[in-house]
Amino acid sequence: MIRLLPHKNKDVPIECKLFNYALSQKDGRGHLYEALSYVWETDIKSHSIILDGCTFPVTSNLHAALINLRDDQIDRVLWVDAISINQLDQDEKSKQIPLMRTIYAQAMHVIVWLGEAMEDGDKALEGIRCLGAEQDIPEKTRDACLQLLQRNWFCRIWVLQEVGVAQCIYILCGSVQINGHVFCEGLRRLGLSSSLPAVVGPVTYLIKGAPFRLHYELDSHESLSIGELIGMYCNHNATRQHDSRYNDKVYALLGLSADSNAKALRPNYRLPWDEVFKQVTNHIFPECSVKTWFETEAAVIKGKGWILGHIISFEKNTSGYGQQNIKILFNDTAWSLGYQDQWEAEWILQACGKSIQEGDIICLLQGASKPSIIRLCKDHFTIIIPSIKPQQRQRGALNEMSQERNFMDGYCDFVLTWEILLANRENKSGPEVPLKLIDMAPKWREDPSEVQKRLNHITWVMVDIAMGTMEVEVSKSKALEHLLYQSGMKGPMINKLVKAIADYSGYAAKESERALLQHQEKRLPISKVMMEAAGNDGPLGYVIIAFLFQYRGESLPVSEEVVKAAAENRPYGRDIMKVLFEHRGESLPVSEEVVKTAAANDDDGHDIMKLLFEHRGKSLPVSEEVVKAAAENRSYGSAIVSRLFMYQAKSLPN
Known about the structure:
Helix content: 25-40%
Distance between the termini: 106 Å
InterPro entries: DUF7104, HET, HetReg/Transcr_Mod
Mean pLDDT: 85
Protein name: HET-domain-containing protein
Strand content: 15-25%
Structural class: alpha+beta
Pfam family, one: DUF7104
Organism: Aspergillus ruber (strain CBS 135680)
Number of strands: 17
Largest sheet: 9 strands, mixed
């Protein structure tokens, strides 16, 4: 600890004395020291203080904090990291980091120093105090409040632990000081939740909880896993004060974590960031293989698990504390594994470092203690939130079906990327552009067969989501739009698919369509899947073919038999034929047998023939058998024959 010596004259140099302090329990009695929470702002130590009679360099922001904290009559006992820890000794730092939770949890007060009273910061803090006391403030002061909340303290990752375990917090800007609870009440009444930086709400939530914590309950049952914490606070910045500075992205959260004693998470500032990233990823997903690289922000995770559903609605909570509400559409896998009985369909999330959106996917990787939120990213999945606590249903008797779980239902292989941003990109404008796996992790390598396996899995995931969306009464087009955009699909095709699926809102999938989904597990040849999809008498066949083209492109086999199956498809032949022509054009194999089959189709035959003539015109092979099939078509025979004469009157057989 340091003893900050008093002085009435603010211009007199700051003088402190170091002394050892035992943090052992005091029979329920509290400690009388205070802990300072602040930001370095810069590594340049442009000021100095007198420490044990010697000159000691400090940053300008710390110097300003000590000036404002110094009393004019009595000593003030403080914990200040830049003075109490030798910042140049990596081994000492590694030993001290695990003590930070205890230091801040047992402090009599945690003093949050927001900085000097520039840009009316002190007036803004006073305005927040007035709002907390239910008094009105002028518009100019409200603008100053918003400016105050832009300060770097709210973005620093270490402040989460410092206020997250504190039992009493004071906020200080210049000479103005207010209680932390009053600060939170003032922000609530400020009513600027949509204008505030995303990092403010989660920090405010931690400050708000301070009065309800007890200093001797260091292992609170409310502690979160490290995966949950990283997912919540990954946008906060690590202080740039050492070469392994990004390790703080993990180490700064340990004091709030239930996993703080895990061997893999013990602070070690001698390790490079990619090794720390690998260790924490292995800890969260213990049965997955993890690959990281030096100076690469993304890890590649390979494992097995289950997709349980997707997010169909998302909105920010108006509390102003960073809460978000999501609604989930669970799939058949979630039902067969019993999770639909255990979890509510609507979850309240406290905070998310990355923005959640409709179409994001709920998955559970084998070995993980909690589900993850992932997002399709062109040719792979990427992790948005590594661990999330589901909203549990009220205790009661579970559905009997859920007691007999078949853990192989929906069990599949995953290749995911996970990126912990080393620099904050929160202010990036426009939608995030999805990147391919090779762009996220240029050094990642896999066999061609593994690539094809990965793309097949994505295709069937999208089909499953599309089918689930069709079966709900209300179309969830935004979720589908996001999903299709993330796949890399172009705008016109997205609109067509969304409309096609929306047209069948409330549609109950047929057994033949559910059988198509089982091909994922049967591993049928793609040619067989194409045949069955083209001939399927439900809307899902059309959707499957569209997705297969998205991920197979030119390599997708389209035989004469596939085109014939589409021509024979009564309800959806026209839609499927359109997709085939869009992707194959002049190379689509349209034989006399295909034309004959289309002419005989008494449901979609007229529209299919119209499409064939539009693309092939006079070159369309029309034989006597084709004319005979058209004439025997009970629904559209005359219309088809008329069209035959329109295009090929001279060449028609007598």
